[in-house]
Amino acid sequence: MKTVLGGNSRIHIGDHMTLLVPKRITTRKVTPFVRRERGLAKRLERYIRHKIRSQPTSRDNEENAAGWESRVTNFFIRKPLQIGKAVAIYAHFNPAATVSRMVVEQLRALNDQGFEVIFVTMSPVSQESVRNIEGFVSIGFERRSFGRDLGAWKDAWTQCQTELLAAPEILLTNDSILGPVRPFPPILAALRTVDHGVLGLTDSPDHVPHLQSYFLLFRGRNAILSLDAFFEQLRCSFSKKVMIERGELALSTFLVGKRVPLYTLFSYDELEADYLNNRDRLRELLASSPHLLKDLSQNEEKLLFADDVTGGGAGFSWIRMRMKARFWGTAFNPTHYFWRHLVLGHGFPFIKTELVTSNPSYVFDAADWRDVICDGSPVSIQDIEDHINLVVSGS
Predict the structure, then answer these.
(1) Buried (b) or exposed (e) across 179-212, using 16+ Cβ within 10 A?
(2) Domains in the chain with CATH codes
(3) In whole angstroms, how far apart are CA 107 and each of 100, 121, 177, 179, 352?
(4) How far does CA 138 lie from the centroid of its chain?
(5) Is the pLDDT at 15 greater than 80, yes or no?
(6) Averaged pLDDT, 358-386
């Protein structure tokens, strides 16, 4: 459910109506280290740009030189893209060589929001799957996997460059997210309140402040031209680590260098403050990050865990400051550590697939993901479970 008031999107969360407003990100707000070392940001940028151009392996060189045509093995949907219409490039992989009902619903949601969809898969798809998605997809093709999602997006960009440069907005997304489990239209409406820039759902301070790349919306001429320039100089790799450095981390730095403003809808700083300012949420976070409790005194542990201490007292203010200092040494992945609060507290529409299937961050309540999905969810629990089974078992 949504209403649009004065160009801003509002979303119902429980009995409350929350205003969704994208927040511009630069560096983290409380960064004495950056202030003390004025040249840090420039050194970080030089480091990231070096990573973009770091020496590839001979196998990487051969694949980059071969070009996108050598990787495309099958065009199964090919309709002309409408000039001047928004375009979403969706990267897909399924070991079961199919397209799940959940992915079909994601493509439907994008199409309903006015996107022409380019569907790029790194796995074979059956004729039945093609029939299921052809009503929502303008271009669909299978390619040999190289460069992970960034490589898929780049190959789609290279072959449809003229139409994409004429689009008013470009969305880069993939199937690494489960859902939507909350209404999707208010999310996109909130992102579209910004006319020029690059907008993500979440951001992270890990290594360098950046937008997380599973959902990126490019709006305005400068943002789209900058994405074109990024793809032009991007050299892909078979290595996941290298592609994270050259892709997600480097993209935000590259865009800042092009003077493109970056916005996030669910700000890391605000999410972190939500946990620091609430005793119960802080306890939940510490259950997944017990290392933050190291060397706390008995009195400090009592201030943190004793039920008879009020949450707003001076004692909790002290422990909150101690925890805040320790947070600076830990870059939490917001879609892992903050996942429950994102969905229940902010109406975040997705759950990361990796959190449910492998839980690499050892988040203590990741297995309880079904608890946040209500009866009116756009995608059912059964559809999500079927998708997970396909991803995990390949059948």
Answers:
(1) bbbbbbbbbbbbbbbbeebbbbbbbbbbebbbbb
(2) 41-268 (3.90.550)
(3) 11, 13, 13, 11, 17
(4) 23
(5) no
(6) 95
